[in-house]
Amino acid sequence: MTHEHFDAIVVGAGPSGNAAAYTMAQRGLKVLQIERGEYAGSKNVQGAILYSDALERIIPDFREEAPLERHVIEQRIWMMDDSGHTGMHHRSDDYNEQKPNRYTIIRAQFDKWFNRCVREIGVTVLCETTVTGLIADEHRRIIGVQTDRDGDGIFADVVVLAEGVNGLIGQRSGLRKELRPEDVALAVKEMHFLPQDVIDARFNLRGEEGVVIEAMGTVTDGMIGTAFLYTNRESISVGVGCLVSEFAKSGEATPHGILDRFKAHPSVRALLEGAEIKEYAAHLIPEGGYRAVPDLVGDGWIVVGDAGHFVNAVHREGSNLAMTTGRIAGETIANVLGSCLACTRDNLQAYVTQLQETFVMKDMKKYKNVPRMLEHGGHNIMDIYPRLLNRSAQTWFRVDGRDKKSKESEILRSARQARGLTGLLGDAFRLARAWR
Amino acid sequence: MSDERVENRLFQNRYVVDVGRPHIRVRPHEVPSRELVAMTRVCPAGCYSQNEQGQVEITADGCMECGTCRVVCAKTGDIEWNYPRGGYGVLFKFG
Asked: For the whole model, what pTM was predicted?
């Protein structure tokens, strides 16, 4: 291995690394993939939702073999106060289609499968090996990696950094800045196991149907964050995530305390009752948006997935951005090497140009102001509005002898009391501007 | 609110501990920084604790390798953070 030269080395075997490695091997490149876990997926954490489109463009018939849990037929979005929630539910039988659009998955199992596909198409995969640094030549071009196994290093024309959000290699090599606590969320998650028929009954599901709940509100104690609950076949993934900066400055909140609060909430408790918890996991999510995306290419290196901060926090999308950036990076490298060119910054720039044309950069740009809006008005959105909304709903739905006109006035009055007219208009304006 | 201990949760997880080679170290200090003290609360695995002298210590055996402490303490230089050697550390069954 020591003196073998590869066309490309991929650091990491998550969705972006697997997508990049698969794409390059499919196009005939000699690829080495290095993963620090015992197997691909053993270090990876996600909710997790798989978006079919991104994977279909890499492995069109993935549904035949991939370990999928349930396809999503219902989405619930909740604004929670302390005693309940108000929200939007969307469900349709149309999602029971030949090729469903979204699935719940269990990442350790899914990544293992994806990586098996990567190996089968010809990539050399080295597990239980941690990349400790990059090797540069005298012109500061990256020409290989140093691992904790091999003193001499391993060399390649290009290194694909698919090392995830907590990407030490890129940071320590000075390719990108240190993460800011404002730009990453800490998510904790538990796996709650229940018999399949119990989950079916509790969530009104049949067969392989699944439900996704995304929630926000007072459950995060005023911190900017969200909670989620996803149905798997025989388990429920339940978790919460808040910005690290919020956790760091907050007085008393602990990540597991917030998770317990969500689990004990009257809207959630009965859904989880009697479940056996089999795992507790924690992970960072890059949520800084477009402004936090680092330099993506340089001489001999390219960044994909979470390491490139590719997450659409508003839509809770990440794995699809990871796979898409991995695929396009792989295609770019194959094109460059196929034209007998070197993987210089200029030649790899085609990757960035192409991302601009896809939903990846278009969506990242669309929401580029959302993180800033949350930094300034987050408390209102996480606390005041959910309370207001739930109180208003109660005022509206309770039948107590008061006339409807008075109820309307009360709802408007409480909104004004909570934020003031200027505050309400300002919030609406800021939201509209950030959403644009 | 049920605030079940972190230790009970970690008990469900699988780890391969690299005995004698902790991947996170806290720089020796007299008085801990605000960030370091925050980690006794923010670390999702409860790895950080304060000793009787008020200094912050780490036992990284239950670490889930999220990197939160590294980000929080990046500017203070309180922590030396590396990934465990290949094959060691947390091993998620589900992730």
From this structure: 0.96
Q: Is A7 helix (H, G, I), strand (E, B) or coil?
A: strand
CATH code of the domain made up of A5-69+105-177+294-366 = 3.50.50.60
Alpha-carbon distance of B91 to B15, in angstroms, equals: 6
pLDDT tens per residue across span A345-378: 999 999 999 999 999 999 999 999 999 888 888 8
Q: Does A178 touch chain B (CB under 8 A)?
A: yes
Whether A108 sits inside 8 A of B87 (CB atoms) is no
Of A106, A129, A283, the CB nearest to B86: A129
Residue B84's closest chain A neighbor by CA?
A130
Backbone angles phi, psi at A99, to 5 degrees: -125, 85
List per-residue pLDDT tens for chain B, 95 residues long. Answer: 344 689 889 999 999 999 999 999 999 999 999 999 999 999 999 999 999 999 999 999 999 999 999 999 999 999 999 999 999 999 999 99
Angle at A107 between CA A134 and CA A58, to 5 degrees: 75
Of B2, B6, B65, nearest to A264 by CB-CB distance is: B2
Can you read off the two tokens belonging to residue A394?
């109660």
CATH number at residue B77: 3.30.70.20
How far does the CA of residue A148 sit from the closest CA of chain B (Å)? 7
CA distance A56 to A187: 28
CATH no., domain A181-286: 3.30.9.90
Residues of B whose CB is below 8 A from A260: 1-4
Enumerate the residues of chain B whose CB falls inside 8 A of the CB of residue A255: 42, 44
Out of A41, A178, A252, the one facing B95 most closely (by C-beta) is: A41
Of A40-44, A304-308, A423-427, the poorest mean pLDDT is in: A423-427
Reported ipTM:
0.96
Question: CB-CB: which of B4, B82, B92 is closest to A108?
Answer: B92
B92 occurs within a structural domain = no
Give the residue from chain A lying closest to B80, CA to CA: A168
Is B91 part of any domain?
Answer: no
Contact A16, A91 (CB under 8 A): no
Instruction: Give residue limits of the domains in chain A.
Output: 5-69+105-177+294-366, 181-286, 370-435
Task: Answer whether residue B90 is part of any domain.
Answer: no
Cβ–Cβ below 8 Å for B94 and A191: yes
Residue B10, domain extent:
6-83
Instruction: Please state the φ and ψ torsions of residue A91, each to the nearest 5 degrees.
Output: -140, 140
Q: Which residues, other chains included, contact B91 with Cβ-Cβ below 8 Å and sequence gap of 6+? A: A37, A38, A42, A43, B13, B14, B15, B16
Residue of higher predicted confidence among A430 and A342: A342
User: Domain for residue B14, yes or no?
Assistant: yes
pLDDT digits (tens, 9 = 90+) for A255-285: 999 999 999 999 999 999 999 999 999 999 9
Establish if A104 touches chain B: CB-CB under 8 angstroms: no
